[in-house]
Backbone:
């Protein structure tokens, strides 16, 4: 099926509601709200800021309060009295307490947000991030929110990754998609055009060939009108953004051809990627993931239908209003005392790593205390590594403290297909 651009909403498009957690990403939020308001009929938003945020989204939200019903929650609105006990139960690994704190807070916010929208008798609702952009999958026929053509109460959303490799500036600033007075490099949906996974296979010492895949788990969009409030109150509901409810599919890695919606996921510039100094997983992890993504993502480059939205949005609301709503899009707010961190462009030889590619070690899987032999197949800065286990399960961007030598070291030269 031929791809179609993101045009104006049809009269029958139902309202979209969204639950959103932000952390120092106002530069993304400006574009995110405008895009989903225009293309997905976003009309209800509940938002909360991570407690470690150094910025707040309130001034940006104020621009939209006459167009979107917005609630800005603090944690007293959704955290239970048992929060600390729940964090302790979730805790594991080097960054265990910080990460567990985040995951429990995220889970409880998502569930309480869904319940709030349900009490308002709202329908289609999604739990996505400010670097993710929802659009119809125009390569299949049933990509629509219409309750007549989408009878299910839940739809999966496939997530293509976009790399931070720059495209030709002429392509980015194409006047057919960039209206006067705006710059394509300020917008995630305009600047980044390279996507797709560079497939690599590694022959391990177990005589298996393992694929280094980089698929993000799917997310979902839920029609709350088809659920009862009691369904959301069940203890089995996790609030996990990939499987928030027990009705969600067990397989969260469906193919793009199987989902009526897709989420474009953008890394942003290096400065934007490392702007979140308080990330619960640590700066070393974020650096390693940045290096990994840019090694493996970006096999393809082409225009996406998503790039047509801005021109249509400006036409719809008018140039003056569009400039007000999109003021400072993509630009980082100065943070006193915070130095921006840029990714290190290093190879394994420059890295002075403790271990090398092909080493087989005991690896603490996900920091959960389960030690299994794993083989290193990629090395990043600051002694972070990616490993394969015997069944080809991966641990991506783990660190040296979660590894220890086997009694007998084993290594061999890798063959990458």
Residues:
């Amino acid at each position: 099926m031929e791809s179609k651009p993101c045009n104006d909403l049809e009269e029958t498009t139902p309202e979209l509601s969204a639950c959103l957690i932000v952390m120092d990403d106002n530069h993304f939020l400006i574009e995110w709200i405008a895009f989903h308001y225009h293309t997905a009929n976003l009309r209800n938003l509940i938002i909360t800021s991570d407690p470690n945020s150094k910025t707040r989204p309130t001034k940006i939200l104020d621009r939209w309060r006459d167009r979107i019903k917005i609630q800005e929650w603090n944690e007293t609105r959704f955290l239970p009295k048992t929060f600390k006990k729940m964090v302790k139960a979730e805790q594991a690994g080097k960054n265990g307490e910080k990460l567990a704190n985040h995951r429990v807070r995220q889970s409880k916010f998502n569930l309480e947000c869904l319940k709030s929208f349900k009490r308002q008798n709202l329908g289609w609702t999604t739990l996505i991030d400010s670097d993710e952009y929802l659009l119809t999958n125009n390569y299949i026929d049933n990509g629509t929110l219409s309750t007549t053509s989408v009878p299910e109460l839940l739809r999966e959303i496939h997530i293509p990754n976009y790399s931070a490799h720059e495209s030709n500036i002429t392509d980015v600033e194409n006047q057919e998609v960039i209206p006067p007075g705006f710059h394509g490099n300020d917008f995630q949906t305009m600047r980044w055009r390279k996507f797709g996974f560079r497939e690599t296979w590694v022959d391990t010492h177990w005589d298996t060939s393992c694929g280094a895949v980089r698929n993000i788990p799917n997310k979902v969009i839920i029609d709350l009108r088809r659920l009862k409030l009691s369904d959301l109150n069940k203890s089995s509901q996790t609030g996990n953004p990939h499987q928030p409810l027990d009705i969600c599919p067990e397989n969260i890695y469906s193919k793009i051809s199987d989902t009526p919606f897709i989420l474009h996921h953008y890394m942003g510039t290096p400065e934007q990627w490392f702007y979140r100094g308080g990330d619960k997983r640590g700066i070393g992890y974020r650096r390693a993931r940045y290096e990994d993504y840019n090694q493996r993502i970006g096999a393809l480059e082409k225009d996406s239908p998503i790039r047509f939205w801005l021109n249509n949005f400006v036409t719809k609301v008018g140039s003056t209003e569009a400039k007000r709503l999109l003021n400072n899009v993509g630009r980082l707010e100065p943070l006193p005392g915070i130095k921006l961190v840029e990714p290190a462009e290093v190879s394994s030889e420059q890295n002075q790593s403790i271990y090398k590619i092909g080493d087989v070690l005991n690896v603490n899987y996900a920091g959960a205390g389960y030690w299994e032999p794993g083989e290193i197949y990629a090395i990043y800065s600051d002694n972070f590594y990616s490993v394969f286990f015997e069944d080809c399960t991966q641990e991506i961007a783990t660190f040296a403290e979660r590894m220890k030598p086997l009694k007998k070291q084993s290594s061999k030269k890798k063959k990458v297909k």
